[in-house]
Amino acid sequence: MFNDEYWMRQALVLAQRAEQQGEVPVGAVIVLDNTIIGAGWNQPISQNDPTAHAEIIALRAACLQQQNYRLPNSTMYITLEPCVMCAGAIIHARIERVVYATAEPKTGAAGSGFDIFSQPRLNHRVQCEHGVLASESSELLKTFFRAKR
Questions:
Q1: Nearest Cα to 72, choosing from 90, 91, 94, 88?
Q2: Could you list the pLDDT tens digit for every one of the 149 residues in the chain?
Q3: Exposed, middle or buried: residue 65 (CB in 10 Å: 0-12, 13-18, 19+)?
Q4: Neighbour count for residue 146 (Cβ, 10 Å)
Q5: How far is Cα 110 from Cα 135, in angstroms, rounded to an integer?
Q6: For residue 138, with 0-12 CB atoms within 10 Å meaning exposed, 13-18 middle and 19 or more buried, which class applies?
Q7: Long-range contacts at 61-69 (CB < 8 A, ≥ 24 apart)
Q8: Sheet with 27-32, side-by-side order of all strands
Q9: Which residues are known catalytic residues?
Q10: Has this prediction a pTM greater than 0.90?
C-alpha cells in the first residue's frame, strides 16, 4: 500500500536542499516497489538549465537506474504541482501516479492552471492526488520567497 506522507517527507528534504542552494524549494522522488528509484530538487539556476526542475532531475535518475525511459507502476511525489513541461515528461515516462503537496495556481498543470493529465487525446493517464503535507510545502515556499523580497 502507499505511504504517501512518508515519501512526501523525503521529497521535502530535497526541497530544503534546493533552498539551501538558492533554488526555489521543490523536491521530487519516484518510488517503485516501495523504493526510491529517482530523486531530484530544483537546479535551473545552478545548472543554467531551464529544464532542471526537480521532476526532470528525478526522471533522469530513475530512467538511468531502471535502464528504461518508461517507468510503469511508479509514483512520483512532488512538493509543488508540476508545470506543463514536467507534466508532459511524466506522461511520456508513463508514471502511473503523481502525488503533489501544494497547488501552483499560476503555472500548475495538474488541475490548477491547466490539467494536462486528464487530456482525452493522450494515450496515457496519470492518477493524480494532492494535498499531502501541503502546509509544510507551502510554508517552505512562502518563507523562501519572503526572504527573496
A1: 94
A2: 569 999 999 999 999 999 999 999 999 999 999 999 999 999 999 999 999 999 999 999 999 999 999 999 999 999 999 999 999 999 999 999 999 999 999 999 999 999 999 999 999 999 999 999 999 999 999 999 998 87
A3: middle
A4: 8
A5: 18
A6: middle
A7: 61/30, 61/37, 62/30, 62/32, 62/37, 62/38, 62/93, 63/38, 63/93, 65/37, 65/38, 66/32, 66/37, 69/93
A8: 35-41, 27-32, 75-80, 97-102, 127-130
A9: 55
A10: yes
Amino acid at 129: E
Record the cell numbers describing residue 22, joined without a space.
538558492
